Amino acid sequence: MTDALAILALTAASHAALGVAVWRSQPSGPANRAFACLALTLGAWTLSNGLVTAYAHTPWGIVWARSAFFSAFGSTVVSLSFFVLILLFSVRANLPRSRWQWLLRESPERRPFR
């Protein structure tokens, strides 16, 4: 086991532990579930990439490569769970009422130089 793999395994374990701890603090909370999903999929992705890097030259390399490919599906879950977290913590009062207001709203950065 290489040093890099040991660090990645520790990182993946800490992701998983943090995700489970947040979920167990309030299992019915949508933010807790979204964060747990985010942390667990990040941990799986980290571990699979570490294993494919460390053992690519062995006969088990194909298994770890396929697990890394399967964890690419996890990146979709990571994106969705992060999006859910953003939606849960966004402040509705500051958001424009329509999409066109948001696109056309004048900001100081868009003003021409005077």
Indicate the radius of gyration in whole angstroms.
20 Å
Number of strands: 0
Poorly predicted ranges: none
Indicate the overall shape: elongated
Distance between the termini: 62 Å
Secondary structure category: mainly alpha
Helical content, roughly? over 70%
Number of helices: 4
Mean pLDDT: 78
Characterize the biggest β-sheet. Answer: none
General description of the model:
This protein has one domain. It contains four helices and no strands. It has helices at 3-25, 30-54, 61-89, 99-104. The chain is elongated.
List keywords for this structure.
114 residues, 4 helices, mainly alpha, elongated
Summarize this entry quickly.
By secondary structure, this protein is an all-alpha fold. It has helices spanning 3-25, 30-54, 61-89, 99-104.
List the helices and strands and how they pair.
Layout: H1 3-25, H2 30-54, H3 61-89, H4 99-104
